[in-house]
Design a protein that fits this description.
Elements lengths: L8 H13 L7 H8 L4 H12 L6 H19 L4 H12 L3 E5 L4 H10 L8 E3 L12 H10 L6 E5 L2 H10 L2 E4 L8 H9 L10 E2 L1
Parallel strand pairs: 1-2, 1-5, 3-4, 3-5
Helix pairs in contact: 1-4, 3-4, 4-6
Amino acid sequence: MDGVLVDAKEWHFNALNQALGLFGYRIDRYDHLVTYDGLPTKRKLKMLSLDAALPESLHGFINDLKQNYTTEQIFKSCRPEFHIQYALSRLKQKGYKLAVCSNSIRPTVALMMQRLELADYLDLQMSNQDVKKAKPDPEIYSTAMKKLGVKPCESVVVEDNQHGIESGRASGAHVFEVRNSSQVRLENILAFIDNLPEASCSQKKVG
C-alpha cells in the first residue's frame, strides 16, 4: 500500500521517529530504507530492542503514539491520485479482482483507502492484523488469494520494497516491482500482464 497506492514512506518514517524521539531514540534514513521499510511497527520496535536496547516496556506506548502521529499525517496529506483511481477503476471494469495487502494496522488501511477514494474499487482489504505473520512472510498474499478464489499463477502483486517483494514471490504470485506510486499506472500494469510467460494461467487478480 505505502509506496504503491500512496507515497507514505515519509509519513511512517517521521511518525515513528517522532514517537521514538520522546525517549531519545531514532532510526536514521538509511537504516529505515535498507532494514525497516515495509515492516510493521511492532516488528521495528522488537528489532530496535535487539539493536539499540530499546526497553520492551515502551513498545506499547510508542506503538500507540506512532499510530496517532500517522493518523494525523494521513488527514493532513493523504489525497486521491487520479492515475491510481483510473488504473483501479479500469482494472475493475475489465473483471480483475483487486485487493490491498498491507503491513499497516487495519484502521490505517481503512482510513487511507477512504482518503484516497479507492475503497469502492477493492474486493478485499487486508492488514497485518488479519494474519499471524506479516510480510516478508507470504501469508497475507496467500490468504488474500484464497479469499478471492484465485491461484498464485493467476495473481499479480505490485510492490515497492524488498520485504513486500519477498512476500509476493514466496506466495507464488507474479511480482510487478515499482519504485513508487507514480509507476502504478494502467498501461504499466497491463504491459506487465501482457508480457507474462504464456505458460502462466490467466491473471485474475491484481493486489
